[in-house]
Amino acid sequence: MLPKKFILFSVMISFSSLSWALQPFDWTSNDIQYLYGGDFIFSEQNRSTVTIEHADGWQYGSNFFFVDMYNNNGFEVYAEVYSYLSLNKIFGADLSLGPIKDFSLAGGINISNQPEEKRFQAYLVGISLDLANKYFDYLQLDIMAYKDDGLNSWGVQVTPVWSFPFELGSTKFKFRGFVDIKDGNTNALGHVTMLAQPQLLLDVGDLAGWKSDIFYIGTEYSFWLNKFGVEDANESAWQGMIIGFF
Protein backbone atom coordinates (compact mmCIF):
# COMPACT_ATOMS: atom_id res chain seq x y z
CA MET A 1 0.00 0.00 0.00
CA LEU A 2 1.38 3.43 -0.93
CA PRO A 3 1.70 5.89 1.97
CA LYS A 4 -0.56 8.95 1.84
CA LYS A 5 2.37 11.35 1.43
CA PHE A 6 3.53 9.21 -1.54
CA ILE A 7 0.18 9.72 -3.28
CA LEU A 8 -0.02 13.42 -2.32
CA PHE A 9 3.46 14.08 -3.65
CA SER A 10 2.60 12.31 -6.92
CA VAL A 11 -0.43 14.58 -7.40
CA MET A 12 1.62 17.69 -6.63
CA ILE A 13 4.29 16.74 -9.18
CA SER A 14 1.60 15.97 -11.75
CA PHE A 15 0.15 19.46 -11.45
CA SER A 16 3.65 20.92 -11.62
CA SER A 17 4.32 19.01 -14.87
CA LEU A 18 1.01 20.21 -16.30
CA SER A 19 1.87 23.82 -15.51
CA TRP A 20 5.14 23.41 -17.42
CA ALA A 21 3.20 22.06 -20.38
CA LEU A 22 1.07 25.23 -20.48
CA GLN A 23 4.12 27.39 -21.12
CA PRO A 24 4.89 28.53 -24.71
CA PHE A 25 7.15 25.62 -25.64
CA ASP A 26 7.45 24.26 -29.18
CA TRP A 27 6.32 20.87 -27.84
CA THR A 28 5.82 19.05 -24.55
CA SER A 29 5.47 15.44 -23.43
CA ASN A 30 4.39 14.31 -19.97
CA ASP A 31 3.67 10.93 -18.45
CA ILE A 32 2.85 9.26 -15.15
CA GLN A 33 4.00 5.72 -14.42
CA TYR A 34 3.15 3.21 -11.71
CA LEU A 35 5.52 0.27 -11.28
CA TYR A 36 5.58 -2.69 -8.91
CA GLY A 37 8.20 -5.40 -8.65
CA GLY A 38 10.88 -7.05 -6.61
CA ASP A 39 14.40 -8.46 -6.20
CA PHE A 40 15.97 -5.09 -5.36
CA ILE A 41 19.13 -5.07 -3.28
CA PHE A 42 20.21 -2.58 -0.58
CA SER A 43 16.52 -1.63 -0.25
CA GLU A 44 13.11 -3.11 0.32
CA GLN A 45 12.98 -6.20 -1.89
CA ASN A 46 9.51 -5.47 -3.29
CA ARG A 47 8.26 -1.97 -3.82
CA SER A 48 5.84 0.34 -5.62
CA THR A 49 7.20 3.26 -7.58
CA VAL A 50 5.45 6.32 -8.98
CA THR A 51 7.40 8.14 -11.71
CA ILE A 52 6.63 11.51 -13.27
CA GLU A 53 8.39 12.49 -16.52
CA HIS A 54 8.37 15.75 -18.44
CA ALA A 55 10.13 16.77 -21.67
CA ASP A 56 9.81 19.93 -23.73
CA GLY A 57 11.38 21.78 -26.63
CA TRP A 58 11.83 25.54 -26.85
CA GLN A 59 13.47 28.11 -29.10
CA TYR A 60 17.08 27.14 -28.33
CA GLY A 61 16.91 23.64 -26.95
CA SER A 62 15.03 21.22 -24.74
CA ASN A 63 14.51 20.19 -21.13
CA PHE A 64 13.83 16.89 -19.40
CA PHE A 65 13.18 15.76 -15.86
CA PHE A 66 11.87 12.74 -14.02
CA VAL A 67 10.96 12.14 -10.39
CA ASP A 68 10.83 8.68 -8.79
CA MET A 69 8.97 8.16 -5.51
CA TYR A 70 9.14 4.90 -3.58
CA ASN A 71 9.90 3.25 -0.25
CA ASN A 72 13.60 2.46 0.09
CA ASN A 73 14.01 1.70 3.79
CA GLY A 74 12.01 4.90 4.18
CA PHE A 75 10.23 7.20 1.72
CA GLU A 76 12.64 8.31 -1.01
CA VAL A 77 12.29 10.95 -3.72
CA TYR A 78 14.89 10.78 -6.47
CA ALA A 79 14.99 13.24 -9.40
CA GLU A 80 17.11 14.00 -12.44
CA VAL A 81 16.84 17.30 -14.33
CA TYR A 82 18.58 18.11 -17.63
CA SER A 83 18.73 21.06 -20.03
CA TYR A 84 20.06 21.00 -23.58
CA LEU A 85 21.17 23.86 -25.87
CA SER A 86 20.86 22.83 -29.52
CA LEU A 87 23.60 24.09 -31.84
CA ASN A 88 21.21 23.76 -34.80
CA LYS A 89 18.73 26.06 -33.09
CA ILE A 90 21.29 28.54 -31.73
CA PHE A 91 23.02 29.05 -35.08
CA GLY A 92 19.92 28.60 -37.21
CA ALA A 93 21.71 26.14 -39.44
CA ASP A 94 21.86 22.42 -40.16
CA LEU A 95 25.03 21.23 -38.42
CA SER A 96 24.26 17.53 -38.83
CA LEU A 97 27.12 15.13 -39.42
CA GLY A 98 26.33 11.68 -40.79
CA PRO A 99 23.90 9.96 -38.40
CA ILE A 100 24.18 12.84 -35.91
CA LYS A 101 21.26 15.19 -36.57
CA ASP A 102 22.16 17.75 -33.91
CA PHE A 103 24.76 18.51 -31.25
CA SER A 104 23.70 20.00 -27.91
CA LEU A 105 25.47 21.37 -24.88
CA ALA A 106 24.04 19.57 -21.85
CA GLY A 107 23.90 20.08 -18.11
CA GLY A 108 22.07 18.28 -15.33
CA ILE A 109 21.62 17.58 -11.67
CA ASN A 110 20.69 14.35 -9.85
CA ILE A 111 19.24 14.70 -6.35
CA SER A 112 17.63 12.60 -3.63
CA ASN A 113 16.26 13.15 -0.14
CA GLN A 114 18.31 10.12 0.99
CA PRO A 115 20.45 9.20 2.82
CA GLU A 116 19.27 11.47 5.62
CA GLU A 117 22.75 12.02 7.07
CA LYS A 118 24.08 13.37 3.74
CA ARG A 119 21.59 13.65 0.91
CA PHE A 120 22.80 12.53 -2.50
CA GLN A 121 23.49 15.18 -5.12
CA ALA A 122 25.49 15.02 -8.35
CA TYR A 123 26.20 17.39 -11.24
CA LEU A 124 26.69 16.64 -14.94
CA VAL A 125 27.94 18.66 -17.89
CA GLY A 126 28.81 17.61 -21.43
CA ILE A 127 27.37 17.06 -24.90
CA SER A 128 24.34 15.29 -26.33
CA LEU A 129 24.09 13.74 -29.79
CA ASP A 130 20.67 13.57 -31.46
CA LEU A 131 20.61 10.37 -33.52
CA ALA A 132 16.87 10.38 -34.25
CA ASN A 133 15.66 8.80 -37.47
CA LYS A 134 12.40 7.60 -39.00
CA TYR A 135 12.42 4.40 -36.92
CA PHE A 136 12.65 6.02 -33.48
CA ASP A 137 10.53 8.47 -31.52
CA TYR A 138 13.87 9.61 -30.15
CA LEU A 139 17.43 8.27 -30.06
CA GLN A 140 20.01 10.19 -28.08
CA LEU A 141 23.52 9.71 -26.72
CA ASP A 142 24.75 11.84 -23.80
CA ILE A 143 28.46 11.99 -22.95
CA MET A 144 28.92 13.92 -19.73
CA ALA A 145 31.38 14.67 -16.95
CA TYR A 146 29.89 13.53 -13.63
CA LYS A 147 30.60 14.89 -10.14
CA ASP A 148 29.14 13.31 -7.00
CA ASP A 149 28.85 16.07 -4.41
CA GLY A 150 30.43 13.78 -1.82
CA LEU A 151 33.59 13.08 -3.86
CA ASN A 152 36.53 15.18 -5.00
CA SER A 153 36.91 13.44 -8.38
CA TRP A 154 35.10 13.98 -11.66
CA GLY A 155 34.09 10.91 -13.62
CA VAL A 156 32.40 10.17 -16.94
CA GLN A 157 28.83 9.04 -17.63
CA VAL A 158 27.67 7.81 -21.04
CA THR A 159 23.92 7.43 -21.56
CA PRO A 160 22.06 6.19 -24.62
CA VAL A 161 18.29 6.91 -24.49
CA TRP A 162 15.74 5.58 -26.97
CA SER A 163 12.08 5.01 -27.82
CA PHE A 164 11.32 2.55 -30.62
CA PRO A 165 7.68 2.04 -31.68
CA PHE A 166 6.79 -1.13 -33.56
CA GLU A 167 3.80 -3.25 -34.54
CA LEU A 168 3.07 -6.97 -34.46
CA GLY A 169 0.11 -7.45 -36.74
CA SER A 170 -2.29 -4.66 -35.82
CA THR A 171 -1.03 -4.42 -32.21
CA LYS A 172 1.19 -1.47 -31.32
CA PHE A 173 4.14 -1.61 -28.93
CA LYS A 174 6.89 0.67 -27.72
CA PHE A 175 10.38 -0.37 -26.64
CA ARG A 176 12.08 2.42 -24.73
CA GLY A 177 14.63 2.99 -22.01
CA PHE A 178 18.12 4.13 -21.12
CA VAL A 179 21.52 2.84 -20.02
CA ASP A 180 23.77 4.82 -17.64
CA ILE A 181 27.42 3.71 -17.84
CA LYS A 182 29.76 5.35 -15.31
CA ASP A 183 33.48 4.97 -14.77
CA GLY A 184 35.09 4.28 -11.40
CA ASN A 185 35.64 7.96 -10.57
CA THR A 186 31.89 8.45 -10.10
CA ASN A 187 31.72 6.49 -6.82
CA ALA A 188 33.75 6.15 -3.63
CA LEU A 189 34.61 2.48 -4.26
CA GLY A 190 36.13 3.09 -7.68
CA HIS A 191 34.21 0.52 -9.72
CA VAL A 192 32.52 0.90 -13.11
CA THR A 193 28.72 0.82 -12.82
CA MET A 194 25.95 0.34 -15.34
CA LEU A 195 22.22 0.85 -14.84
CA ALA A 196 19.96 -0.32 -17.67
CA GLN A 197 16.17 0.09 -17.53
CA PRO A 198 14.49 -0.97 -20.78
CA GLN A 199 10.68 -1.02 -20.95
CA LEU A 200 8.43 -3.05 -23.25
CA LEU A 201 4.97 -1.47 -23.51
CA LEU A 202 1.69 -2.49 -25.12
CA ASP A 203 -0.51 0.33 -26.48
CA VAL A 204 -3.72 -0.60 -24.64
CA GLY A 205 -5.50 2.56 -25.75
CA ASP A 206 -5.09 1.66 -29.39
CA LEU A 207 -5.94 -2.01 -28.78
CA ALA A 208 -9.20 -1.05 -27.06
CA GLY A 209 -10.20 1.36 -29.82
CA TRP A 210 -9.39 4.46 -27.78
CA LYS A 211 -6.77 7.02 -28.74
CA SER A 212 -3.34 5.53 -29.50
CA ASP A 213 -0.04 6.51 -27.82
CA ILE A 214 -1.82 7.56 -24.61
CA PHE A 215 -2.13 4.54 -22.30
CA TYR A 216 0.22 1.57 -22.06
CA ILE A 217 0.81 -1.48 -19.88
CA GLY A 218 4.01 -3.47 -19.85
CA THR A 219 7.15 -4.33 -17.96
CA GLU A 220 10.45 -2.76 -17.01
CA TYR A 221 13.62 -4.74 -16.44
CA SER A 222 16.26 -3.10 -14.26
CA PHE A 223 19.84 -4.32 -14.29
CA TRP A 224 22.40 -2.52 -12.12
CA LEU A 225 26.01 -3.67 -12.40
CA ASN A 226 28.06 -2.98 -9.24
CA LYS A 227 25.19 -1.07 -7.63
CA PHE A 228 26.43 2.08 -5.85
CA GLY A 229 29.95 1.00 -6.87
CA VAL A 230 29.89 -2.16 -4.75
CA GLU A 231 31.81 -4.84 -6.64
CA ASP A 232 29.65 -7.81 -7.73
CA ALA A 233 26.50 -6.27 -6.20
CA ASN A 234 24.48 -6.83 -9.35
CA GLU A 235 20.77 -6.08 -9.17
CA SER A 236 18.30 -7.76 -11.53
CA ALA A 237 14.68 -6.73 -11.02
CA TRP A 238 11.45 -6.99 -13.02
CA GLN A 239 8.53 -4.62 -12.54
CA GLY A 240 5.07 -4.58 -14.05
CA MET A 241 3.96 -1.10 -15.04
CA ILE A 242 1.25 1.14 -16.42
CA ILE A 243 1.94 4.49 -18.03
CA GLY A 244 -0.27 7.33 -19.19
CA PHE A 245 0.84 10.19 -21.44
CA PHE A 246 -0.70 13.66 -21.41
Walk me through the topology:
Layout: H1 4-21, E1 27-37, E2 47-58, E3 61-71, E4 75-86, H2 87-91, E5 102-112, E6 121-130, E7 138-148, E8 155-168, E9 171-182, E10 193-196, E11 199-203, H3 204-207, E12 215-225, E13 235-245
Antiparallel strand pairs: 1-2, 1-13, 2-3, 3-4, 4-5, 5-6, 6-7, 7-8, 8-9, 9-10, 9-11, 10-12, 11-12, 12-13
Short description:
The chain has about 250 residues and is mainly β. The chain has helices at about 5-20, 85-90, 205; strands at about 25-35, 45-60, 60-70, 75-85, 100-110, 120-130, 140-150, 155-170, 170-180, 195, 200-205, 215-225, 235-245.
Explain what the structure shows.
The protein is mostly beta strands. The chain has a single domain (4-245), classed as Beta Barrel (Outer membrane phospholipase (ompla), Chain C), CATH 2.40.230. Helix content is 11%, strand content 55%. It contains three helices and 13 strands, in the order H-E-E-E-E-H-E-E-E-E-E-E-E-H-E-E. Strands 1, 2, 3, 4, 5, 6, 7, 8, 9, 10, 11, 12 and 13 form a 13-stranded antiparallel beta sheet that branches. Strand 3 and strand 4 (75-86) form a beta hairpin. The longest helix has 18 residues, at 4-21. 22% of the residues are buried.
Unreliable stretches covering 5 or more consecutive residues = 1-21
Secondary structure: number of strands: 13
Architecture, CATH level 2? Beta Barrel
Helices, by number, come to: 3
Give the ordered list of helices and strands.
HEEEEHEEEEEEEHEE
CATH superfamily: Nucleoside-specific channel-forming protein, Tsx-like
Kindly report the CATH topology. Outer membrane phospholipase (ompla), Chain C
The major β-sheet equals: 13 strands, antiparallel
CATH class: Mainly Beta
Count up the domains.
Answer: 1
Shape: globular
Mean of the pLDDT scores?
Answer: 91
